[in-house]
Amino acid sequence: MTLADNSAGMRAVIQETVDAGILPGARVWHPDLESQPAADETFDLIVTSLVLHHVRQLEQVLRRFAEFLVPGGYLCIADLDREDGTFHAPDFDGHHGFSRSEVAAQLVGVGLSEVSVQDCTELVKDGVTYSVFPAVARRGT
C-alpha cells in the first residue's frame, strides 16, 4: 500500500500511523503530480478522498493517475459536488466542488473508461450539508 499527500504535515501523520503498525508494509510517498514528470510507478487501484478539490491542475493530475494505473486498474474518487464556497475558508484557492458531468468527461478525456459517478454520502460541516460523490473509472486493458 502506498499513501501519498502534498502536505508535509499529513505525510507525517500518515508515517506515524505506519510506524505504529496500523498499516504494516505501507509506504508514504510524495509525488508532485501537478508539475513533475510521472514517476516510474504502477498501481492496481488509486483512491482519493476529498483531495481533488485542493488540486489546481486537475486535468494534469487525472492524466498522471491514468498513467500510473496498470491495464485494467481502477481510479476511485470521492469528492464534493459543486458548492457555494462555504466548505473552506474564504481565502481557499482550490475548487468549490465539481460538476459530476465535468468530472466524468475529464476522466474519459484522460483515457479512462467505464466511468460511473453516483450518489454517495453527505458531510455536515458547521451546520451545512455538503454532498459527496464517488467517481470510478478504469484504465483499458
UniProtKB/TrEMBL annotation:
A Pfam family the protein falls into: Methyltransf_11
Gene Ontology MF, one: methyltransferase activity
InterPro entries: Methyltransf_11, SAM-dependent_MTases_sf
One record GO biological process: methylation
Methyltransferase type domain mapped to chain residues: 4-77
Keyword terms, alphabetized: Methyltransferase, Transferase
Protein name, entry field: Methyltransferase domain-containing protein
Lineage, uppermost ranks: Bacteria, Bacillati, Actinomycetota, Actinomycetes, Micrococcales
